[in-house]
Write a structure and sequence with these properties.
Shape: globular
CATH superfamily: Aldolase class I
Radius of gyration: 16 Å
GO cellular component, one term: cytoplasm
Protein name: Thiamine-phosphate synthase
Low-confidence stretches: none
Structural class: alpha/beta
Strand content: 15-25%
Bound molecules: the ligand Cc1ncc(COP(=O)(O)OP(=O)(O)O)c(N)n1, ligand 3NM, magnesium ion
Family: Belongs to the thiamine-phosphate synthase family.
Helix content: 40-55%
Order of helices and strands: EHEHEHEHEHEHEHEHH
Distance between the termini: 12 Å
Pfam families: TMP-TENI
Number of helices: 9
Strand order of the largest sheet: 1-2-3-4-5-6-7-8
CATH class: Alpha Beta
Pathway: Cofactor biosynthesis; thiamine diphosphate biosynthesis; thiamine phosphate from 4-amino-2-methyl-5-diphosphomethylpyrimidine and 4-methyl-5-(2-phosphoethyl)-thiazole: step 1/1
CATH topology: TIM Barrel
């Protein structure tokens, strides 16, 4: 799991400045290790249109052996037979989601150590900690928790697979991994890049090099 979390790309049509399929293709070519379909926000697709887009993005991931995770929508994840689901503290309860999805991947958003322990008790496969830095991609994001929260959680839960999210860029990725995250989850660092493939390659290289330097 920790390897899969290394460069976790989160995206929906609203985040993209061009065709989401083209964005995903370039990100895959650049080396993403996991993908989350997060169709959310003003102008997001719903119903059949959402399903059709998810289906096409999933096909791309399947062809390249990239785990395809659905954000929030457990019914969609089950209908597509996706690889997993990501839920937050205000979504369907993690225990119930675990019951519904069997052994598919379950990711849970956390903001502190108490929530990490609860997520582990619900048999989450990984936790998503954020926002580490201020973000432009989530309207209802909490206050940034900074690198110290990664260090704090890692000091108390040495083995939990943890991906950091929120405002992470090429400039901050190294510090995030050094603080103890197993990977970075990003929207804008990839979606807003002028050259998506090259930018993704740079992020991948930073994460992998920093993990190797730390023997992880
Ligand atoms: C990897 C990852 N971590 C955290 C989140 C945030 O989930 P949530 O708090 O449920 O907020 P929404 O993304 O649903 O707006 C995430 N999606 N992915
Ligand atoms: C989807 C999401 N969840 C967050 C959390 O704090 O749980 S922050 C966030 C948005 C991440 O996008 P960007 O890389 O553009 O900052
Ligand atoms: Mg959610």
């Amino acid at each position: 799991m920790k390897q899969k979390l290394s460069l976790y790309f989160v995206m929906g049509s609203v985040d993209c400045m061009k065709d989401p399929l083209a964005v995903l293709d370039e990100a895959i070519e650049g080396g993403i290790t996991m993908f989350q379909f997060r169709e959310k926000g003003k102008g997001a697709l719903t119903g059949v249109a959402k399903y059709r887009l998810a289906e096409k993005l999933f096909e791309r991931c399947l062809a390249h052996n990239i785990p395809f995770i659905v954000n929030d929508d457990v019914d969609l994840a089950l209908a597509l037979q996706a690889d997993g689901i990501h839920v937050g503290q205000e979504d369907e309860a993690a225990e119930r989601v675990r019951d519904r999805i069997g052994n598919k991947y379950l990711g849970v958003s956390v903001h502190n150590l108490t929530e990490v322990k609860k997520a582990l008790a619900a048999h989450a496969d990984y936790v998503g900690l954020g926002p580490i830095f201020p973000t432009v991609s989530k309207d209802d994001a909490k206050q940034a928790c900074g690198l110290t929260m990664i260090e704090h959680i890692r000091a108390h839960e040495k083995h939990v697979p943890l991906v950091a999210i929120g405002g992470i860029t090429e400039q901050t990725a190294e510090q995030v991994i050094k603080a103890g995250a197993d990977g970075i989850a990003v929207i804008s660092a990839i979606c807003r890049a002028e050259h998506i493939c090259e930018q993704t390659k740079r992020l991948y290289e930073i994460v992998m090099r920093t993990k190797q330097e730390g023997d992880r």
